[in-house]
Structures are given as structure tokens and as C-alpha cells.
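Record now logged underneath.
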Amino acid sequence: MKSISIWLFPEGPNPLKVLVVLEELQIPYEIKTIKMEDVKKVPLIKLNPNGRVLVIDDPNKGLILWESCAIITYLIDEYDTNNTLTYVAGNEKYLVNQWLYFQASGQGPYFGQAAWFMRLHPEKLQSAIERYQNEIRRVMGVVEGHLSGRQWLVGDKMTCADLAWVPWTLFGDILLSQSGHALLRDYPNVEAWYERIASRPSWKKVMEMRSRLLDSLYYCYTNLYENNMKFA
């Protein structure tokens, strides 16, 4: 099998969603890092006209694909031949999609807006900050209630839905801790679920990889093509 190329900006949570799925399924891949200011420039804009990361290029299927949850669904459909991270029948099949779509429409956008208004917006708009901090707590409250008496979001095993939720959950905890709150501490079911995934070798490897990529991106490399890493 040829390595899948994955274009990403390592600081954000979305790349971690796909990387941990690749690791769990042991799919070979090659990382191509890009700075945020270059996402709307050639060559990335030719791969994704929306000018966002992440993007994959799978030479095995001749497919270029963007949007992280679409990529996860593709990887599961094409490469999870043992159904390790999904269900292929029964209600669970559709519940996995439910949680993937909720992550893409509910968790990611609200958490991302919180990050924008807390860290990047040129003006301090307290009403916007409070709105999106409250949305973080509301969304994770849904997950907290759902995980009562459960170990995983769907069924009796970890699925790609769990993996999709973990990066933004960590990111939300970091964001709220900056304002004197703690997301994981306040939601014990979520915290226990998070720790189950964070203890896995795949997640540990991805987080170590992220640290190395950030170091190399900010301190060693300036050219888009220079910082490539291959993994099997």
C-alpha cells in the first residue's frame, strides 16, 4: 500500500482526529505541514478550493478529499476491513454517523469560535466570549449525560466517533482553563472517557508527533515542502 499524503496545520484539533484514526488502522501516511498563512495559496488551494486544512491525497484510490469527518468516513469505509472502529449493521451503524455529524456541526464550530474570540479577535467582545464558552459547556453537558453508564459513545467499543470527539474535547479543556475553569474536571463521565482514549498508544504517538511538528514548523522550516514525515 502506498502512503496517504495528509496536508495539515499541526496546531489545530482537526488533524488529530484523522491522524489517530490512521494510527489505529495502521494505514501508512506522509505528513505535509503547512503554515496557516499559506492555506489559501498554491499548492494547497488547488487541493482544497475552500482554503482549509486538512486534506488527504490517497494514491491508492486516486482521491483528494477534504473535511475531517468526511476523511474519517472514507478511511473507515475503505480501510477498516475488520470493522475495528465502526459498526456495519444495526442501530449502531447510524449512531456512529449521528455522533460524527454532531461533532462536525456542534462541537467543532462552537469550540472554534470560542478560540477565535478568546485568542485571535482584535477586540475583546465579552458577550461573544461568554456565548461560546457557554456553548462548550452545553455541548459537553450533552456528552456527559450520554456517557452516564457507558464507556463509549456508541455500543460496547471505541469507534471513530469517539476518536473524532477527543481532540476538540482536549482543546476545550485548555481554552476554559485559561479563564479559570476546567472542562474535564467538571464532567467526570467525559473525563473518564477521555482518559480511556488518551491512554492508548495511538493517541500518545499522535500527541508526541504534534509536538515535534510544531517545533519543526515554527523553529526549523519555512518552506512548505521541507517538513515531510512518513509513518507506517
